[in-house]
Amino acid sequence: MRVNVKTCTSMLTAVALLLVGGCMSAVFGQERRLPTYEVWRASKPINVDGRLDEISWTKAPAIRTFLLNRDGAPAPFNTTAIVLYDDKFIYFSFRSEDENIWATMRERDQFLWEEEVVEVFLQADPSLRNYIELEVNPLGTMLDIYLLDRRKNLPYRSWNSANLRWAVRVEGTVDGLGGDRGWTCEIALPLEDVATAPNRPPRPGDRWRMNLFRVESRPRSAGAAWSPTMQNDFHVPSMFGEIIFSDKRVP
Known about the structure:
The protein is mainly β and 251 residues long. It has 2 domains: 1-33; 35-250, Immunoglobulin-like (Sandwich). It is 13% helix and 35% strand. It contains 2 helices and 13 strands, in the order αβαββββββββββββ. Strands 1, 2, 3, 4, 5, 6, 7, 8, 9, 10, 11, 12 and 13 form a 13-stranded mixed β-sheet that branches. It is globular, with a radius of gyration of 22 Å. The relative contact order is 0.22. Mean pLDDT is 89; it is low at 1-30.
């Protein structure tokens, strides 16, 4: 039997490409597997004081995995976040372990991401391109932004949530020196501001897109995310995780 070497080589090349393509698809499939989180309903309004001492914060499921945003590696610091909702608000809490807490900005809508901060990105209707961004630093300063599209925000000072509530508590000092333990943050975003939500309040089974971030500056700079965007950019809505509203209630 005569063998056509050229034909065999072509066939082997094709098989190799298929195998490589399949492996790469599997790898990228893993990278694109976005996290989900079930949001429980609070039985009573949260007292937004930054203390995280309500029993609701201890009973609801917590997000404990924050990864470096650029490459998905484990973050070198611990962060815990919880999300709840009721008829009027969606609530967020953060507990950030930090031995060196630092921030200087005290005026609303300053560029807080340049220092240390926790951030919420919320897209209530994934079929639309707009989303809300909230940032709070350890001094209790807020930056609230309404974006019409990726990085196309309304002027910072032209949109402020009138009934937004937030508070922080610091275990240490906000001076960039060592010896601190960490800080906590509570945010209550009025559902009236989430204008694109299909239902307000959300109904059990409703699905929104969300991402949570933490920016550290000292002793070294690092950005961590619940759902890493794998870029040097937080504004990648296609990489946001998904939240599913539940009818489960916490005390």
